[in-house]
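Ticket #4471: structure export looks truncated?
Reporter: QA, pipeline team
Priority: medium

Steps to reproduce: submit the single chain below to the structure queue and open the exported record.
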Amino acid sequence: MAVKVMTANEIVEFPMLKKVTCEMGWKPGKSGSSWDLDQSLIILDGCGKILKDVSYMHPEKSEEFHFRGDNAGKDEEGKFSDEKISINFLKLPEHYHRIVVIMNIYEAIYKRQDLSMIKEMYLKFWDSKIEDTQVEVPIKINKKECFDKTGMIVGEFYKEGGRWKFQAIEK
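Actual output as written to the record:
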């Protein structure tokens, strides 16, 4: 499977998204307290009104969304990868227009952690129903800008002309 690697502000469009899994991973740069990064989705309508969120606080297992996360573990490269949320684009209501992908450090203030302490971070997503749709968004962390920041917008799926697109944001 070919992997499309995106950069900030780049947009990727697929003919028709069906069932997409978003996976977030990271590698902390500093040891000490345990790390737990959480992925969330914020769903908005065409006017920007928040309709719902899918996160560890509001996990969902429905026809539209399936949250799987908080199973801390390392992959073969030593990266943590435990946050997955599936989106079934075929079941989304017509009035859903934007799905913002957010990450934050769980209990960051209590553990005295911020984004500048993370060595690597990425978001991967793929459509299990369409071949060659794997996209990886390596998230660049500006150590100066991320000092004291505990979360960021990674990107968003948005509907334009009846088609869904994804834009990497990194804010």
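Status: closed, not a bug. The export was complete when the record was re-opened. Leaving a note from the reviewer for reference: The mean pLDDT is 79.
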